[in-house]
Amino acid sequence: MNYTIVDVFAEAPFGGNPLAVVRDAARLDTKAMQDIAREMNLSETTFVTAVAGDRATVRIFTPHEEMPFAGHPTLGTAWVLSGGKRPFTLALRAGDVPVRFADGVAWMTPPSATFGSGVPTGLAAEVIGLGEGNLDTSIAPCYVTCGPKFLLIGVKALAALKRVRVEREALGALSPGAYPFTVCRETYSQDADFAARMHFFDGAGMREDPATGSACAAFAAYLRSQGVAGKFIVEQGFEIARPARIYLRVGAPNEVGGRVRPVAEGRLL
């Protein structure tokens, strides 16, 4: 089986979030897919089990579990299958996700997000290791699920975002399976609108995600719920030397986009 490694939400190679895409994977069982994903040891590895025209059935695995939906695997897999030249629909565990390409950017229409309860600002601040005075109260902490479940937290300043630290013990106070997605209106680049960080437990320890398309889809749904519409750029991954740019179109429907950069090709023996 051939595989391709791409960087997604990357303006240049070795930025954004890396992804391995394994093609012709129909004969693999779930255990084999999980073993290969663990071997790749990237945020996610996708397995293409069927292709018919401009539609493919795809499964997404982290090194430790299968995911119903994730953003950068969806965009990266569609790019690998289409060469970034034509629309493609991925049939995922979470449902069909269409992907289109325009001006070098891959755009997906994510699954509908669902909103959970709000979270006290004191608890939200504690989870990310900051004092409550650092929070941006215009972004009320709340749970939003778009595939994975996220706790959206706003902070006032880029300096505060850089100081975010998440300990595994702090996650015990959150809704089961939720991880903090911290956003800030101060950015690294003048043309960006938000900077963000996302931390998660990968089964062995806490990790930081270079670029989280599903979290940005959840954030787009939150913005729309607040009556906000338009085009936005979210920066992520700068703190871990994997700079990423995630493009949002907040409207009807919401779209999440990014550039895909090929890095490597190989063959599974």
Would you summarize the structure shown here?
The chain has an 18-stranded mixed sheet that branches. The chain is an alpha+beta fold and 269 residues long.
What this model shows, in words?
With 269 residues, this protein is α+β, with helices and mostly antiparallel strands. The chain is 19% helix and 41% strand. It is built from six helices and 18 strands. It has helices at residues 30-40, 71-82, 121-127, 158-162, 168-171, 213-225, and strands at 2-8, 17-22, 44-52, 55-61, 66-67, 88-92, 95-102, 105-108, 114-118, 142-145, 149-155, 178-184, 194-201, 206-209, 230-236, 244-250, 255-258, 260-267. It has an 18-stranded mixed β-sheet that branches. It is globular.
What's the N-to-C terminus distance? 7 Å
Please give the number of β-strands: 18
Low-confidence stretches: none
Mean of the pLDDT scores?
Answer: 96
The structural class is: alpha+beta
Note the main sheet. 18 strands, mixed
Taken as a percent bin, the fraction of beta residues is 35-45%
Principal-axis shape: globular
Q: Using only CA atoms, what is the Rg?
A: 18 Å
Discrete helix count: 6
Pattern of helices and strands: EEHEEEHEEEEHEEHHEEEHEEEE
Classify the helix fraction into a percent range.
10-25%
